[in-house]
Amino acid sequence: MDDFHIRVEAYETIRDLIEDEQILVVDGKDPNKSTYDPATDTIATRYGANSPAGLDDRAMLIHECTHAIKDMERVTITALGNEAAAYIAEATYLLLRIRITTRPARSIKLRSNRRGDLSYIKPKE
């Protein structure tokens, strides 16, 4: 099983690298996906993505930034583990943003330990 822990500080570092243009963010060519290229340290957004980015586009950026973190930290994991980590980060972002902006009938509870790992807390039936 792959071992890849993602901390908030890593996203802050990616943000700083983007601001310093050490990681470039460019308009992509595909309207259905965004990408991260580790060879050029470039994130390509979805073609036609609006600015400011909507929730889905921001979630895609979290996904691609997760790939950039893996690259930055030189983590060795499988391609499947890399995608799984990125999708989990994207889904976590969406769950947290939706919970903040709407009031679902049933809350989703997440717990974070001191290292910043997230755990889902199963509701009692």
Description of the structure:
The protein has 125 residues and is α+β, with helices and mostly antiparallel strands. The protein has one domain: Orthogonal Bundle (Arc Repressor Mutant, subunit A), CATH 1.10.10. The chain contains 3 helices and 5 strands; from the N terminus they run αβββααββ. The protein has helices spanning 8-19, 55-72, 79-101, and strands at residues 24-27, 35-37, 42-45, 109-112, 118-121. The chain has a 3-stranded mixed β-sheet with strand order 1-3-2, with helices on one face. A two-stranded antiparallel ribbon has the order 4-5. A hairpin with a 4-residue loop joins β2 and β3. The model has no long low-confidence stretch (mean pLDDT 81).
Order of helices and strands: HEEEHHEE
**What would CATH call the class?**
Mainly Alpha
The low-confidence parts are: none
Largest sheet features: 3 strands, mixed
